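Check my protein:
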Amino acid sequence: MYAQQKKLTKEQLLELERPPQTKVQIIADYLICLCPFLACLLAILEYRVVPNTGLNTGTATYAYFLGIQAVILLMVFLFSLKSKKLFAKLRYKAPFYTFIYLLFLGYDYLTLKTGILMLPYFPWVDQVLNAMISDHAYLLDCVKNSMILLFTGYAAGVLAGLVTGTICGYSKRVNYWVSPFMKLLGAIPSTTWLPIVMVLATSLFKGSVFIIALGVWFSVTIATMTGIHTIDRGYFDAAKTLGATNRQLIFNIAIPSAIPNIFQGLTQGMSSACTALIVAEMLGVESGLGWYITWQKSWAEFAKMYAAIVLICLVFVLVNVILNAVSRRVLIWKEEVS
């Protein structure tokens, strides 16, 4: 009997096809992987050693912030020495991480150390971190309110988009009447309707939900329609021959086949929702991160304003990472086929 052969993964096949590295290339890869740690150390030294200009002062918060990251980077580097997969990821990300820490270094030098970028418009990183810590309770409450508004509008837009996209994609008659209106509304950013909606809505929250849902609705509708239109009509004909009802055609053929396009629409819709959220909070809603930014700007508290902006970036990145992870999990069959 022949020994059962183990099936090689895609990564293992690529590893076999890759030409062997020279010693110089191996050493260069190790040095590149170590660069983020070295750049982080360099940023710490710049903050602690280079004297501040004028009356500019700093605390130990920024140094601790960088120090924790330096320890994490060093641990990741050490662990990557025993894991080829982790080492490959670190090798790919290392130049970008190094660039980020050099940006930190450069910004701190231009603000705290030299004053080329002056207060109050350009607070140094240490001020932003301290503002985030001192006002953390209020910021967390704003994050909570923003997330409630974001996901309420997003869920409403996704639900409406799936219904509209499925019906328009499946029925030519409905598509005939709805498609012209979608082309008209799709060319107009959802935030354009904000002044009208805020006047007509019974509450600022409901008006903001509608603005967010409108942008999501269009993205999901178009993606769902496109996915259904690209399905081979032979599948529908074969199912009809076997006695499938319209409900079965929609839920067993149309929607499952359009899932890859639907997830593209979900991702695009989240981007539209995030933009609409900030605009709605800045112009209408009296809570949330967008409102917090406008409020702090009116009092010239630019450190707190930048703290909220950083928090917005982190929250939105986290939301998109989760959405992409769900998409990859659901569409894992697509990667296996490709």
